[in-house]
């Protein structure tokens, strides 16, 4: 079913639990992926955080599956997501969803690292015991072309356009 994990628990490898704790879900509702997911509210708002190695100036993409515990209020579940700076709020409306049809959506955002380590935090922003549900968090390097490659590609395209406009057009008349 589920296990309630208190703050400071490190039972989930690589993640630190904060706030009022979380519920570690197994066979209670349909997960987005695999066999486990999280309810970010145990009895009150909780959080999970993970610190990972980054390269300053490198772009990264985070994606995660979001739903909400449909068993209680409020209808709109809100999670705050931060990577060391101001948090961004993501909402999920549980209307029409159930334990067997959670309605998971995947949210994605990109950021540029400012140091050798970055901390990713998901925090519930609602009161009570029925919080936002989280699953399938992934962190990947952003696919950003090298500045030199992008510049060469642009210069080549401009050269082709320019040379095409300079080609003289001649018309031959039929005799």
Description:
By secondary structure, this protein is mainly beta. It has a single domain, classed as Sandwich (Jelly Rolls). Helix content is 11%, strand content 42%. The protein is built from one helix and eleven strands; from the N terminus they run βββββββββββα. The protein has a six-stranded antiparallel sheet, with no helix packed on it. Strand 7 (76-82) and strand 8 form a beta hairpin. The termini are far apart.
Q: Helices and strands in order, then pairings?
A:
Blueprint: E1 2-5, E2 16-19, E3 22-26, E4 36-39, E5 46-53, E6 59-68, E7 76-82, E8 88-93, E9 105-112, E10 117-124, E11 132-141, H1 147-166
Antiparallel strand pairs: 1-3, 2-5, 3-4, 4-11, 5-10, 6-9, 6-11, 7-8, 7-10
* Number of domains as seen in the coordinates: 1
General form? globular
> From the coordinates shown, what is the CATH architecture?
Sandwich
The biggest beta sheet, please? Answer: 6 strands, antiparallel
> Considering the protein shown, what is the CATH homologous superfamily?
Galactose-binding domain-like
- In N-to-C order, the SSE pattern is EEEEEEEEEEEH
Kindly state the mean pLDDT as a whole number?
A: 86
Structural class: mainly beta
Calculate the terminal CA-CA distance, rounded to whole Å. 89 Å
Query: Strands of the largest sheet, in order across it?
Result: 1-3-4-11-6-9
Number of E-state strands: 11
Tell me what portion of residues adopts beta-strand conformation. 35-45%
Radius of gyration: 24 Å
Number of DSSP helical runs: 1
